[in-house]
Structure prediction request, 483 residues.
Amino acid sequence: MERALEIAALVWPYVSSAVTLAISALASVHAILRKRDVRAAIGWVALIWAVPLIGAALYGALGINRIRRRAVELHPTRLHAAAPAPRHSVVDDTRLPDALADLAPLARLVERVTGAPLVRGNSVEPLDGGEAAYGAMVAAIERAERSVGMCTYIFDVDAAGLRFADALEAAAKRGVEVRVLIDGVGANYSRPTMVRVLRRRGVRTAVFLGSILPWSLPYANLRNHRKILVVDGERGFTGGMNVRAGCLPGGDPRHAVEDLHFALRGPVVAQLLDAFAEDWAFTTREHLGGERWYPALAPEGEVLARAVPDGPDQDLDKLRWTLLGAVAQARERIGIVTPYFLPDAALQNALAVAALRGVTVDVVLPAVNNLRFVQWAQTAELWSLLARGCRVWLTPPPFDHTKLMVVDGRWSSIGSANWDPRSLRLNFELGVECYDEGLGAALTERLDARIAKARRYTREDLDARPLPVQVRDGIARLFTPYL
Prediction:
């Protein structure tokens, strides 16, 4: 027995070293093969070897994208077997209207990136602020006859949220198929949660990737940040607006928010519903289909539109490629309104090149951000754009949560995504690209109205920051890939 213990004592260090090396090697190979971002791959490999076993354990817990695995199981082609065949007018992107004909390369790019058609016959109505948006959305739910699908990030139990809860409960009681999906982190911004409230009222409600993280943590990854409402498969709403009283006039002064949402009619609504149905199936395994959810859609307007889903699965980089294509397409002006602006090097360079080509590039940001660390980081990132002639504007409170991009007054992008890594790489988002001069003019007016009340932020302002502030902003910038 003593001899066996002596042999074990001699052999054990070699065995443990071999096991440690094998685990570290396997984890490193996985990171090298699976991580698309070179910096992420280098960082994980360094951690795996610098802290043996612990580094590999951290990589196994935090570094592997299990969302992608599950998303593959729920491939979109399997979701809507009961849905009717498409009955909308698909656009041949080589035959756009004469006024938009030069945008054909951009339309072709986005079709190849998304695999979705650009569709004719849509109306897109901007809804300024919570009173207009919530009023239109609640009224649509109150008129619902067949189905209501709603997805949101934050859904507070307050004056705004309870208006929706009342309408959803009434719809469910009169026999409407109601499905509500709330993000697992966003659901916890108020107590009790709206999930509990809706379930008690008999509204079928699901939680997207429920989390044990504290509700106040604003940097959790892999969230469903989409805002989608589709009523009877015919009336759609999307944009950047959460459901909370801060968006209402005289609402919660601690979270006062200016925002922009959109009402959509026409064939593109089916694409919004596709995104919701996929998220619902991902969460609940229930597949939505049939005429209650997918009726035939008649033309409702003149806007050519296409939904662009984005997320850390098979939809990765779809919005990013769309934005890059739109910037490259610009000839006169690019207007961007976003609350969080941390574009990666490719997007920064694309905007800088556009400005150097003579395109006017306007970036409109809140002067006071609700996430201070993000504001510090984005300030440090502005140098490369300001040095190349891009214009940056800072709007006064209330905090502007609008997400909007307009190119040459003819192409626009609306939806839930910010210009930051969280939206473009880590969260599930939905954008809608729109080709229309009338809509472009209306959105350009809103862009210019924000600029009219804003202060221009210049290279001189950037250089005038005290050294401690510059160091603080620079340190925050180091965390940009994770913000």
About this structure: The first helix runs from residue 2 to 34. The chain has 17 helices and 17 strands. The CA atoms of residues 353 and 388 lie 8 Å apart.
